[in-house]
Amino acid sequence: MSLILAVLLAPPLGASSLAILVRPYRRFVGWVSTIGVALSLAASIALCTTVMGAGPQQEAVPATALWRVDALSALLALCVTLVALVAMLLGQRAGHPDREELARTRYFWIFTNAFVFTMLIAVTIQNVALMWVAIEATTITSAMVIPLTRTKASVEASWKYLLICSVGIALAFAGTVLAYFDFVATAGEVPGALNWTVLRGAAPSLHPPLLQLAFAFLLIGYGTKAGLAPMHTWLPDAHAEAPSLVSALMSGVLLAVAMYAIGRWKAVVDAAVDPSFTNRLLMGFGVVSVVVGTFSLVIQRHYKRMLAYSSVEHMGLVSIGLALGPLGAFAALLHTMNHAVAKSLSFLAAGRILHRYDTTEIGKVTGLLRVMPWTGALFAIGILALVGLPPFGLFVSEFLLVRAAVVTGRFWVAGLVLVLLLTAFTSLVHHLNRMLYGEPPPAVTVGERRDWSVTVLAVSVGMLIVLGVTLPRPVAALITQSVRGVIP
Amino acid sequence: MGGAFSQLVMLGSSGMLLTALIVLWRKGVPAYITAYRWQSWLLAALTATVGYYGGDGQLYWVAALLLGLKGVAIPALLRTMQRRFGTEREATPYVNTEVSLLIASVLVVFAYLLGRPWMALTQLPTRQGLPLAMSVLFVSLFIIVSRKKAITQVIGFLMLENAIALLAVVGTFGVPLLVEFGVFLDALMGFLVMQIFIYHIHDTFDTLDVDALARLRH
Amino acid sequence: MSRYVVLVVQPLVALALAPGLVGFVRWLKARLQSRRGAPPWQPYFEIRKLFGKEAVVSHTASWIFRATPFVVFGTSVVVASLVPLILVPASPLVAGDVFAAVYLLLLGTFFLALAGLDTGSPFGGMGASREMTVVALTEPTVALSIVALALSAGSTNFSQIVARTIAEPAAALGPGHLLAFIALFVVTLAETGRLPVDNPSTHLELTMIHEAMVLEYSGPYLALIEWGSALKLLVFLALAANLFIPWGLAFALAPGALAIGLASAIVKLGALAATIAVLETRVAKLRLFRVPELLSASFVLALLAVMSTFLVR
Q: Smallest Cα–Cα separation from A452: which of A42, A94, A83?
């Protein structure tokens, strides 16, 4: 287990260090990073199989250990490495860049690798305070990459991102300290006191009002990082202004990692307080996020911001799912996985569109199917997947979510979600139509070669279809076991 | 022992709150940097006090680290930044001074109300510092939200980190050393990155007025 | 018996000391500014001179103008009998309520503001409106500082507050006490017209607050008002000193205790007066729209004092 863990974590760290050392940037650094992430992906798949093999009673790791991988961690590590691999594969650009672009590329590889590394640490470490440290580190590393091209908009976006997320994370730390304070007041200073397994075990003897307060802080803090409304204000700016590779990572998996943190804490707090408390909070924030995300989609004029607001909406759905008991948690986790693939696909395609059209406005991008047939098709598939159309995976997870809502008796949530999904569907498809058809602008070159980036993205589409049409048995089993990480 | 210890902790925590209020009261950035410096020194002194009375030697190291990093290094960096960009005066903030101070007092009351269940919970001699730490937290949040200069926002954020460190020291007599180091590293990295960003902002916008950072709308 | 001593003798002592206090502040300021300055007993001569002069009253003034000096003087004298200056009466039967004292002083200020408006002089009206602004902002702070004290003592009666502080000196060093003291000190500066709120020695009418209201007064009326203002300063300083640092106050009618009480009062008042003098040399007058900032800051301090005292209970 520890060997696999080392193979999981070492490559991104190594690649980042390599990128720091190699000066000026050489192409092989990019390749090393990509191969490294592929290794991490293999390691995460191995982790999944190990975790599944050990069965539900996987207690081989002592409670005071630093690292611990259960099904939930393995699932998220899988998502992170998968999206990272796809993004990095698309990051290998041909051609002879000039010196400034060389410096930027070097920067990009240093911080993106560090970013992936910190995300992986966050999902595999057992100590909640160190998990916090890792998540704060993700803010810092990703913030460094956003203003890669020093424009006014990107500097503004990254400043807002850094400040708002750092404030949110600081509040999450306050929540962590509160919970730790409660634990120490009850049980004294035990080594490994900050491990979430120990906390969960001791939870029934902790004091409910304190844990409720702590959870409120944690939800607001990590919720800021996850893009839950009303703390989402940094999200459209940051995700739109970042280079699309980084946006894919941030939108696809970083938000999921933040929701993972919330899920872990929910498990701890639920053991002490009646679950209806956390459920109500999560439901509230989730519903607000879905509403805000959907309505912002209607009046959008920039396609990358459109995708960003869609992330807000989907994270809201995940939050609602977490609040709906085991069935809802299953739907939420499945949705996380589907969303990671679909959103990264969409952002990467959007990046190619930006590169060709040189504008971010929906109105100025026309005739996409004629100008870039492959990318246009991929982008369209991504958007259609995001609105929850079958045969793509998000349809299944959204269906399961609504079903969970109905089964637990929350009809109004089911109805609201359906209405909002319909609204999102209409607006997104409307924007998509404007982009796909029509006359291409005169300044844009028409036609596209089918290079291997397209192939990589097509593989993502394949994954989405597979997840949607037949949920493979191992994946379903993995997710079922992960649910136990959130709902004991 | 209990009496002097609690008094000292309460004095130190109140001092930290007062330094946070100074940022709301005064109008010059050098005053803010001095207030932050005093706050960090108070925090280091408090940590050492808790280490002395609590019998935990590790906290001395933590206090030394706090002093070096937050009491000396960061204020020096802030002063260099401030001199470089010539941001002497904080422009009229979003909320004026009197209303800011009143809102701060409301936040202090709110923090005390929130802190009541805890104080009843524990028998720690430092328990009176808990609501004060929460007050500093809320006041720092308010500073970040209501001030216009990027440097002031950074100072507000640094005070927020101080507040959380105070919360950890007072509530739990410090968190494990490993965590402490991790948090320090994060704080340092965060500050350095913010510093880099202030240079970016100045380069791109020619001003440190956060008002100028308002192009991205809906 | 001690009640009557307090009621009669204390105000007399206060009346005797008050002009000396103002003179001392002026003299110390002058020395700090490297001037020789008038001797500290100069105000006594000024008051005597004013009593000998004729009072000139405007035709348009009403009875308020003539009554105000007596109200100001009278309320100051009454409050001087309530405040613990030398002797704290053993029984709480004397109306030694802190609120009563503060609001009696406010009555005097109110009449002074009316008198400023009464003559129809523009400077008087200006001074009156400014004074009312300042007072409106200081009143909550005063109330809160008093509440901070009263909370720990369980009563707003002077003797009880003083007794409590003497019984538990550790509480006196608490942050609540300190904050309330600072807040009350700032309020003193504001209510008695000292820098940085108001310059008492200015001759520029547009910068005046208190002086502008009394511009029209002359002769005995002016003497009464000057004396009353000096007495107000003494009363506020006595409040600040003896509520927060009550050691030295006499509790019984023994001549030894009374002598100690008088001596300690003089020492404490002198120390506070010296602080005022140093402060006045150090700071400049605040522009009028900055005064609310200072007063809000003192309000927040008083609020914090209440919060921390509330908690310690």
A: A94
For C152, the domain range is 2-312
CB of B171 within 8 A of CB of A178? Answer: yes
B70 within some domain: yes
Q: How many domains does chain B have?
A: 1
- Give me the DSSP letters along A55-120: -S----S-TT-SB---HHHHHHHHHHHHHHHHHHHHT---S---HHHHHHHHHHHHHHHHHHHHHH
In a domain, B202, yes or no: yes
Rounded distance, CA A433 to CA B120, Å? 61
**C-alpha dist (Å) from residue B86 to B89, B150, B171:** 9, 13, 40
Cβ–Cβ of B179/A296 closer than 8 Å? no
Confirm whether B217 is domain-assigned: no
Chains that touch C (3 or more CB pairs under 8 A): B
> Exposure pattern of C134-172 as b/e (b: 16+ CB <10 Å)?
bbebbbbbbbbbbbbbbbbbebbbbbbbbbbbeeeeebb
| Structure tokens given for A237 | 């700016």
Which H, E and C letters describe B36-104, residue by residue?
HHHHHHHHHHHHHHHHHHHCCCHHHHHHHHHHHHHHHHHHHHHHHHHHHHCCCECCCCCCCHHHHHHHH
β partners of residue A67: A125
Q: What pLDDT was estimated at residue A256?
A: 93
The closest of A264, A273, A256 to A196, measured between CA atoms, is A264
Model confidence pLDDT, tens digit, residues B96-112: 888 899 899 899 989 88
Query: Which one, of B136, B188, B194, lies nearest residue B164 by Cα?
Result: B136
Nearest CA in chain C to B12: C175
Work out how many domains chain C is built from and give that number: 1
Cβ B215 vs Cβ A156: under 8 Å: yes
Q: Give the pTM.
A: 0.83
Radius of gyration of chain C (CA): 19
- Owning domain of residue B34: 2-212
- C170 → closest Cβ in B3, B105, B109: B3
Res A147: pLDDT: 83
Chain B residues whose CB is inside 8 A of the C305 CB are none
Residues 65-104 of C with CB under 8 A from B: none
Q: Which of helix, strand or coil describes residue C135?
A: helix
Q: Per residue in B119-144, pLDDT tens?
A: 777 777 777 788 889 999 999 999 98
Interface test with A, best of B135, B155, B204 (most A CBs within 10 A): B204
A186 touches chain B (CB under 8 A): no
User: Can you name the residues that pair with A361 across neighbouring β-strands?
Assistant: A302
Q: How far apart are CA A156 and CA A233, in angstroms?
A: 13
* A211, closest residue in chain B (CA to CA): B118
Average pLDDT, chain B: 83
**What are C250's strand-pairing partners?**
C87
Q: Is some CB atom of chain A closer than 8 A to the CB atom of B169?
A: no
Q: Which two tokens stand for residue A29?
A: 């650094």
What mean pLDDT comes out for the span A118-141? Answer: 89
Residues in B closer than 8 angstroms to A140, CB to CB, are 186, 189-190, 193
Q: Cα torsion at A271, A276, A278, A282 (round to 10°)? A: 150
CA distance C118 to B192: 63
Query: Does B40 fall in a domain?
Result: yes
- How high is the mean pLDDT of chain A? 85
Contact between chains at B121 and A210 (C-beta distance less than 8 A):
yes
Residues in chain C, pLDDT under 70: 1-3, 5-6, 89-96, 171-173, 311-313
Q: With an 8 Å Cβ cutoff, is B17 touching chain C?
A: yes
pLDDT band for position A21 (cuts 50, 70, 90): confident
Rounded Cα gap, residues C157 and B179, in angstroms: 52
